[in-house]
Amino acid sequence: MQEVPSSKSWLTFRQAIHALVKASATRSSVDQRYRALIRHMGNILSAAAGASLRELMDRMGHASTRAALIYLHDSDERQRKIASNLDALTRQELCRG
């Protein structure tokens, strides 16, 4: 099995996770398509959990926003949450005035 780096830096952490996933996938005969699918699903879930564009870029190891924007697609639930938050902020401001 591939040795996992032990440094605390994010890049090394990313490398460690990649090494673990790769080793697990190799042992369980998971091909490249499924590893990509697992990575894609992790990014979708991170975005749904509220990760910002910068956080998604860091998690994926990308320097450009192009790939990260794919995961920030619109959802009805997210739109309802934004509307609810805006409503609460508006009501707070109206109560002050």
Structure description:
This protein has a domain at 31-96. The chain has five helices and no strands. The chain has helices at 10-27, 32-48, 53-60, 65-71, 76-96. The model is unreliable at 1-8 (pLDDT under 50).
What's the helix and strand layout?
Elements: H1 10-27, H2 32-48, H3 53-60, H4 65-71, H5 76-96
- Secondary-structure-based class equals mainly alpha
Percent strand: under 5%
**Largest pleated sheet:** none
Poorly predicted parts: 1-8
Q: What percent of the residues sit in helical stretches (DSSP H or I)?
A: over 70%
Number of strands: 0
- Report the span from N to C terminus: 64 Å
**Cα radius of gyration in angstroms:** 19 Å
Give the helix tally. 5
Envelope shape: elongated
**Overall average pLDDT:** 76
**Helix/strand order, N-terminal first:** HHHHH
List its traits.
disordered N terminus, 97 residues, mainly alpha
Task: Please sum up the structure shown.
About 75% of the residues lie in helices and about 0% in strands. The chain has helices at about 10-25, 30-50, 55-60, 65-70, 75-95.
